[in-house]
Task: inverse folding
């Protein structure tokens, strides 16, 4: 990996420093970039272990990609171990949360759900390969821009320095109380009570991370480490009250105190909070393209968070449910029904007011439904 040039320091970990590095292809003159985690050779055991773990996780789009590793002689004759990773242009999820908080912008539930989906896919991959991450938190989730997904980011899991080899159905026991591996505010109660580290560890940490995306705050308020440890073991984490029922239910399933009852990645990926976020994300992506399956069963396009329906038919109950799910999932969407032809072609004024009444039943919070009736006699 000789050709890489370390340009500047991105940050530091307990092992050493992380550099931004570039490499130019002498033929095509294309420049590649990477993040390089560096440690003195005699302090590089954890980085070498991380490289081994990342090699086994290579084939997931939801895990930061491992480019390679080498040993260089820096500063005279000091041997340095270098671990090359794909470079995350967007920083970390922690930066994104802080940024949103400072700008007093709350992430929409669709956004949070879409990010939770990506984290779940990453965790599922890690678990399938026989690992438990043990340190899921916003600072260990890296952000890659993804403009084509309606402005939403692509997230990848990073920092496998504390990961454990834990096959399915087995848990790692540290053998002592208060001996959790990961970062305390994201650690589940069982890791403090009995040193239990199973796949359920990552699910609890995911719940804490998702709640933090929703509110901008951690799930625990505490005075000091002792107070936090006591709260994790004896109290319920703070689940936000001003989010939808579905979002709250998702968090409850992640934050079940009993690790054997806590939901798995497979179960959580099927949860309506995730499914609705995916549905909305896909609909946003269509940007005005007619969708074949939609709540009305008629032509439907989405453009700039508005839904335009041409040739509406009377809404059947099963489709109505789908529409209401869609509305819950993205409260920022406003609905406007516009007619491509004289509405009397589709509705009598009586059925028109019936439709309007039905539509208003779905309306909640800041959703507005506007039905242009200027054509009606
Ligand atoms: N692939 C990457 N692309 C861009 N920045 C990165 C990348 N990997 C790490 N960084 C940045 O480098 C800094 C240190 O990262 P790292 O995860 O190694 O340290 P840490 O988690 O703070 O420390 P430790 O692992 O010892 O607890 C962080 O600011 C992180 O965002």
Result:
């Amino acid at each position: 990996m000789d050709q890489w040039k370390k340009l500047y320091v991105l940050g530091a970990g307990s092992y050493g420093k992380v550099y931004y590095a570039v490499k130019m292809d002498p033929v095509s003159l294309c420049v590649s970039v990477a993040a390089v985690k560096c440690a003195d050779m005699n302090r590089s055991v954890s980085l070498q272990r991380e490289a081994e773990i990342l090699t086994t996780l290579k084939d997931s789009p939801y895990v930061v990609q491992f480019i390679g590793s080498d040993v260089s002689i820096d500063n005279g004759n000091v041997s340095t171990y270098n671990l090359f990773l794909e470079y995350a242009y967007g920083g970390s999820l922690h930066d994104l949360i802080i940024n949103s908080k400072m700008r007093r912008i709350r992430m929409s539930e669709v956004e949070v759900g879409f990010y939770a989906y990506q984290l779940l896919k990453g965790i599922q991959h890690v678990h399938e390969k026989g690992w438990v991450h043990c340190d899921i938190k916003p600072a260990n989730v890296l952000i890659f821009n993804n403009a084509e997904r309606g402005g939403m980011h692509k997230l990848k899991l990073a920092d496998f320095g504390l990961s454990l080899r834990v096959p399915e159905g087995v848990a790692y026991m540290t053998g002592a109380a208060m001996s959790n591996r990961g970062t305390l505010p994201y650690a589940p109660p069982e890791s403090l009570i009995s040193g239990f580290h199973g796949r359920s560890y990552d699910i609890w940490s995911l719940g804490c991370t998702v709640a933090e995306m929703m509110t901008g705050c951690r799930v625990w308020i505490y005075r000091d480490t002792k107070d936090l440890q006591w709260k994790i073991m004896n109290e319920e984490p703070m689940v936000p009250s001003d989010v939808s029922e579905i979002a709250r239910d998702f968090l409850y399933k992640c934050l079940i105190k009993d690790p054997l009852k806590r939901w798995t990645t497979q179960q959580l990926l099927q949860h309506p909070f995730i499914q609705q976020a995916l549905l909305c994300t896909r609909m946003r992506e269509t940007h005005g393209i007619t969708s074949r399956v939609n709540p009305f069963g008629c032509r439907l396009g989405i453009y700039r968070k508005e839904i335009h329906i041409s040739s509406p038919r009377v809404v059947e109950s099963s489709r109505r449910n789908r529409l209401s799910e869609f509305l819950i999932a993205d409260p920022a969407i406003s609905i406007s029904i516009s007619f491509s032809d004289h509405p009397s072609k589709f509705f009598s004024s009586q059925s028109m007011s019936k439709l309007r009444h039905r539509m208003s039943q779905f309306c909640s919070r800041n959703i507005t439904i506007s039905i242009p009736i200027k054509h009606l006699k």
Remarks:
- The chain has three domains: 5-85, 93-279, 302-372.
- The CA atoms of residues 41 and 371 lie 69 Å apart.
- The first helix runs from residue 45 to 56.
- The two ends are 76 Å apart (CA to CA).
